[in-house]
Write a structure and sequence with these properties.
Elements (H helix, E strand, L loop, with lengths): L4 H10 L7 E4 L2 H11 L3 E5 L12 E4 L2 H11 L3 E2 L2 E2 L3 E5 L5 E10 L4 E7 L6 H7 L5 E4 L8 H8 L6 H20 L2 E11 L5 E3 L3 E4 L8 H4 L6 H11 L3 E4 L4 E5 L2 H13 L6 E4 L6 H12 L6 E8 L4 H14 L6 E7 L2 H8 L5 E2 L3 H20 L1
Parallel strand pairs: 14-16, 16-17, 17-18
Antiparallel strand pairs: 1-6, 2-3, 2-6, 4-5, 7-8, 7-10, 8-9, 10-11, 10-12, 13-15
Bound molecules: guanosine-5'-diphosphate and manganese (II) ion.
Manganese (II) ion binds next to loops.
Amino acid sequence: MKIHEYQAKEIFRKYGIPVPQGKVALDPKGARRIAEEIGGPVAVKAQVLVGGRGKAGGVKLATTPEEAEEHATEILGMEIKGEVVNKVLVTQAVDIKSEAYMGIVVDRSSKRPVVMVSPAGGVDIEEVARETPEKIHKFAVDPLTGLLPHQARGMCFKLYEEYQPVREASSVLTRLYQAFMESDASLAEINPLVVTPNGEVWAIDAKINIDDNGLYRQREIEAMREVTPEEEQEIEAKAKGLSYIKLQGNIGCVVNGAGLAMATMDLIKRYGGEPANFLDIGGSSSPEKVTNAMEILLRDKNVRAVFFNIFGGITRCDDVANGIVEAMEKFPLNIPIVVRLTGTNEERARDILKSTPLIPVSSMAEGARKAIELARGRQNSISE
Ligand code: GDP
Ligand code: MN
């Protein structure tokens, strides 16, 4: 899960990392009021979940509240890498003498949290890694001991020559490590960490990604989530024991098991179609799960045909068939449904489905082709 800069900064503050004061505004007047409160130069910053805002014109400095309002007018509504800006952070501006990079990631190859620092801060770190990899310094932390003070200092000596900023930055790094571990983060990053002309150290940008598998014990962070309508559907599906991911195609897929779901999507693509979703109804499916799945699926107006691909094991084919029949009674289904049910109780399922307008198929490939054909036919008949 990604969170916004202002939210990451709230976490930083809790751990005592020096972050300039600031507040979020939803409109230009709000930005002006915050700038008045701060009473000095401010930075107006687009709050989106993508990086590179500075380059895209989403970060602007203002010396007066009027100017802050003007910048907010420009930035709000702007699109950065496909994401529309609907919030700006108005924060006290800091004088910059130098910009450094400081980050921690979970590293799969060393199986440890890896601390990375670079004196080439403020720019895209991937670019630094590509072009001047010698400017990035890494250290794999032993999670049993944590990041020890001398190790943190050692890293910060790669950033500064004088002891004062090294000491301040090591304290920031130690706190960042603590925040990283205690938040179940997969990444925590300060880019740039700046030193001011009078020697103060500030984190003027903040990024934290949380490992979704840790969210169950990160209630406060989970509450920071701002859900898009699509995510809302995915969350609703999850609450009903389904895993649903919306995609851009027109063929709705209802499948049991993540592997089979992937295989079904691959097959649809192979025959030239586009899946509208990933939907795994899981094992031991009750008829209710199937009706829930259909309800979620059919809210997507792009869906032109549905392909049920069920491999009956613990999931019984007759349960799924009953679910489809119930769903058909509950919602007016005016799109074709292709069904492949194989395995446990498949004969019983076939009997149940006999008197319905469902289209039975006997193999995955046939089902995928049939669904694509039907989806195309419908699209044509609608557009004509
Ligand atoms: P990003 O581009 O999305 O990573 O956004 P950042 O928060 O890192 O801001 C981009 C750049 O704007 C920074 O690298 C700084 O050069 C500049 N910037 C941001 N805040 C301030 C500030 O308070 N003072 C000054 N002088 N520059 C700032
Ligand atoms: Mn940045």
